[in-house]
Amino acid sequence: MNKWPSLKQLHYLVTLHETRHFSDAAEKCFVSQSTLSKGIQNLEELIGCPLYEKKDKKSPLVFTQAGELVVQQGRELLAKGQDLIELGRVCQGGEMEGQLRVGCIPTIAPFLLCNLVQEVNQRFPRLNMLLREDTTTNLLAALRHGDLDVLILALPVDIDGMHSRIVGSDPFRMIISRNQAETIKVPIRYDDLPNEFVFLLEREHCLTEHAVSACQLTAKEKINPFSATSLHTLVQMVANGLGTTFIPQMAIDHGLIENQNLLVVDPPGQQAHRHIGLVWRPSSSRVSTFNQLADVVSELL
């Protein structure tokens, strides 16, 4: 009879990969160091090759190529194991109960999550939402590894086989300083703008790619080399007369540009917008929970 790695062994290995020290990993797994070491040793024997380099105990561990691959697949198996456990709650009719770990990107979170939490608490008082704000790339990795249950993202984006549901759209607008309004023709044509006049977020924020694509900005010379880390920074740059930028309508609706002496205009492009959607693992058994959450988000949008 074939022997199979256990989820416990994989959990030990994944935790060791995160901490790079046996003592720290054992503490996080609530086991003794000898128990953790034995579990990983048995896993190595089952797989048939070393998973990490054997060095002095003081140095952080370095994983072998095989070890990195086992960790990667181990995370996915642990996530699927977690999805199996969730089946029990679904079978007992507890779809909107317990913890729900939700990830959201920074260009949506400040303008949605407060209202969403209040609405969920009112409708589903036994559902405890745990929130995380991060970039799309980091959130998708956390979802894939089982650290999050569902994401609220701006689409389209490569979700690598995950399931999704679009719940609404968010129009893009452009803002300019009222002090510059007389020198900028409306409707805006990029050819009329000075070079390096358009400010954008850092590339790790998907809003930049969505805005550039939806608003048909193809002239790279119009983009300022400075890239901001937040929408608030972009607003301040424009408010000080340094240029223009793209802002999602939901940010304007929630007061991002209030008292900033700014003028809101439509950007080039036919009804330029981004989609807002929920994303989850195909193996998750909580699809009904996600759909009910999606309904709430759709209403708020």
Automatic annotation (TrEMBL):
What Pfam families is this protein classified in? Answer: HTH_1, LysR_substrate
Query: What keywords does the record list, in alphabetical order?
Result: DNA-binding, Transcription, Transcription regulation
Please state every residue range assigned to the domain named HTH lysR-type: 5-64
Coiled coil segments of this chain: none
- GO cellular component terms listed in the entry, alphabetical order: protein-DNA complex
Family assignment? Belongs to the LysR transcriptional regulatory family.
What is the designated name of this protein?
Answer: LysR family transcriptional regulator
- Organism, as annotated: Vibrio scophthalmi LMG 19158
| Lineage summary | Bacteria, Pseudomonadati, Pseudomonadota, Gammaproteobacteria, Vibrionales
